[in-house]
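Incident review: delayed structure delivery

Summary: a single-chain prediction request sat in the queue longer than the usual turnaround. Root cause was a stuck worker, restarted by the on-call engineer. No data loss occurred. The affected request and its eventual output are reproduced below so the record is complete for anyone auditing the incident later.

Affected input:
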Amino acid sequence: MQRKPTRRTNQERTEVTRGDLLTAARKLFTERSYAETSTPDIVAEAGVTRGALYHHFADKQALFRAVVEQEALAVAEEIERATPLSLPVRKALLAGADAYLAAMAVPGRTRLLLLDGPAVLGRAEMDGIDLRHAGRTLREGLAAAMGEGVIAKSPIDALTGLLSAAFDRAALAVDAGASAADYRAALVALVEGLFTSKKR
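Output delivered after worker restart:
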């Protein structure tokens, strides 16, 4: 006896449509850029109607923001997987740096988060997204190191911002073809420098 196929609920259909739009938009934004991607391109790639797009997102920029947020979350999750709480803080900061570079090596991610993101959403909004995700993980690691007294106390927001900028610069350079090993070594030296400065 054949079972009737189960029908999806409205919420399931809604989630599938939203997911299809995000997947299509990510593909086109990374292949063409935000500026060169139109909403008709996105709905055609997703196989949905324009009405479906505007049901889920106010406009192309809102869809782009959702794609960027999703990518930033994925980076933070990679860092968190690589830095369990059981890891000593020094090893966690170094593992987090490696995880960041690996996560940013996903094709298109550097363009979304470090090039088009600031251009489309503005630096302040991108900083806010970063502080909810990868920047938050870095800040937490630095706060833990300061709390344990293994690195010198300093203004944590400024230190987080400067180190985050160094990580972003490394990701951009590697994406442009520079040696990942060289940039990883430089980031390790920066992080290790925080610990050696405490001994002076």
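Verification: Residues 10-32 form the longest helix (23 residues).
Action items: add queue-age alerting; document worker restart procedure.
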